[in-house]
Design goal:
Blueprint (H helix, E strand, L loop, with lengths): L1 E3 L2 H13 L4 E6 L5 H13 L2 E6 L9 H6 L4 H10 L4 E3 L3 H4 L21 H4 L3 H16 L3 E5 L3 H13 L5 E5 L19 H6 L2 H14 L4 H13 L4 E10 L15 E9 L2 E8 L1
Parallel strand pairs: 1-4, 2-3, 2-5, 3-4, 5-6
Antiparallel strand pairs: 7-8, 8-9
Bound molecules: adenosine monophosphate.
The site of adenosine monophosphate (AMP) has 17 residues, from helix 2 and strand 5.
């Protein structure tokens, strides 16, 4: 696997590969990799001549400086895992390489509309603006044919999809399925921060989402499905709810009737043991 820290040398290499008619599949990450991240790279590797990953802990999408500082950076281990997953190229830039003139005062050419005002956007002000800033910058640098992102961060991938369409960027977005632990907990870099007790309780999140899916099949309305899920959650000790919404997969706005949306998704974020856990399910 080739590792590039500088844009110039990365682009020289990628341009050569493009001349050889290689398609480029790209998965941006913040490192502290697990099997969820690796699934994006494996799919990118299967579907393209070249699989490119980036590891960049983007300061502009953290609203809490402590959180940014505490973000795990096990780079040696990450490199080993990427190599094993068949990743061809790792882009590992410094902050000054991504934001050479500083990262402030960025004005997005993308109109987020209502997409960033709900759910994660409402709980983490500025988060999606920072995410869009770095994704645009990375796309500009890598110019991939395909961009691989996880359904795990459902709102994020919906916003990126809308951004690609609105800015008429030539990259195709591929949304990859959520990789879960054997007990159903969605894999996340944050899971290691759960105490053993909290870790044992955490699979209740996926159980709740699966129940919502069953409830829909059994004929309950979105309002009833949501009410039952909220009731269940309230009965679980130690879980603090940030939000639980049943939304239109495209607009991310809550739906009142199933026929209001071509696809509906239950999105849920809870705090357990001080750790924020995100999950979702298409129903
Ligand atoms: P992050 O490093 O947290 O920014 O995540 C990088 C990419 O990996 C994003 O597109 C995430 O949606 C994706 N990802 C994170 N966790 C999972 C998972 N459990 N399954 C599939 N994709 C994931």
């Amino acid at each position: 696997m080739w590792i590039f820290k500088k844009i110039d040398s990365l682009q020289q290499y990628l341009n050569q590969q493009r001349k050889d008619k290689q398609r480029i599949g790209f998965a941006p990450t913040m490192g502290a990799l697990h099997q969820g991240h690796l699934s994006l790279l494996s799919q990118a590797s299967r579907e393209n001549g070249l699989a490119v990953a980036s590891i960049f802990v983007n300061p502009t999408q953290f609203n809490d400086p402590n959180d940014l500082e505490k973000y795990p950076r096990p780079i040696e281990n990450d490199i080993e895992m990427l190599t094993e997953a068949g990743c061809d190229v790792l882009f590992l830039p410094d902050v000054s390489e991504i934001y050479p003139t500083g990262s402030r005062n960025w004005v997005s050419p993308f109109n987020f509309g209502e997409l960033a005002r709900v759910m994660e956007g409402a709980h983490r002000p500025g988060h999606f603006e920072g995410m869009a800033q770095v994704v645009q910058r990375l796309l500009d640098i890598v110019q991939p044919d395909r961009l691989y992102m996880g359904q795990k961060d459902f709102q994020q991938q919906t916003i990126v999809g809308a951004m690609l369409a609105q800015l008429q960027l030539p990259t195709e977005l591929i949304c990859c399925a959520i990789v879960r632990e054997a007990d159903g907990l969605a894999m996340s870099s944050r899971n290691i921060r759960l105490s053993p007790t909290a870790r044992a309780q955490a699979p209740a999140i996926y159980a709740l989402l699966q129940q919502a899916k069953k409830d829909r099949k059994n004929g309950l309305s979105p309002i009833q499905v949501r009410a039952r899920a909220l009731e269940k959650l309230a009965a679980l000790p130690h879980f603090e709810l940030d939000y639980l919404e049943i939304v239109d997969a495209k607009t991310l706005q809550p739906i009142l009737n199933w026929h209001d949306a071509a696809a509906a998704v239950v999105c849920l974020t809870v705090r357990l043991d001080g750790v924020r856990l995100l999950d979702n399910i298409r129903i």
